[in-house]
């Protein structure tokens, strides 16, 4: 996600639009607010209720996030096939651990297995739904709007990588995870050279 943002999304956005650093920061802040607002609303005094609400809020937050991931993919393909490809790769690579996280939270809350499957399917389908809906409604956007949307996507990717993914790699096997992180960045860099 970091490599896609810095190697592809931000440079492409700078080429086609203005005020890109501002929009990158907006994307970062939008996802910060979404994540923190959705996880902290509806507190209750009962400890079990709090855990249950955390699971539901996480499900809602991840559904919204997955929907926006689909929008990001569509915006990428609207700019070019290579930008769309890199955005899709970044989204797919972080959706898998997110799915495991959602399932883990829901299991911890004591949700019924059938409900967990339904929630997981909804979160998984939100991305293709967001992409298809966006492809239908985001046609023929001006370069300024496309650049803005790419920058917001880059900001959201930077937030997710720095706030969610990188802290997780510090919890166990730091050396192996650091090698995997750097390998992923190198992979995206050379993939860009190949398709750029």
Fold topology:
Elements lengths: L1 H15 L3 H21 L6 H33 L1 H28 L4 H25 L5 H27 L4 H22 L1
Helix pairs in contact: 1-4, 1-6, 1-7, 2-3, 2-6, 3-4, 3-5, 3-6, 4-5
Question: Could you explain the architecture of this structure?
Answer:
- With 196 residues, the chain is mostly helical.
- The chain has one domain.
- Helix content is 87%, strand content 0%.
- α1 packs across α4.
- The protein is globular and about 50 Å long.
- The two termini are 17 Å apart.
Q: Indicate the radius of gyration in whole angstroms.
A: 17 Å
Profile the largest sheet: none
The gross shape turns out to be globular
Structural class estimated from helices and strands: mainly alpha
Q: What is the number of helices? A: 7
Spans of 5+ residues with little confidence (pLDDT < 50)? 40-54
- How many beta-strand elements? 0
Give the CA-CA distance, first to last residue. 17 Å
Beta-strand content = under 5%
Average pLDDT number: 77
Give a quick set of tags describing it.
87% helix; mainly alpha; 196 residues
Quick synopsis:
The chain is mainly alpha-helical. The protein has helices at residues 2-16, 20-40, 47-79, 81-108, 113-137, 143-169, 174-195.
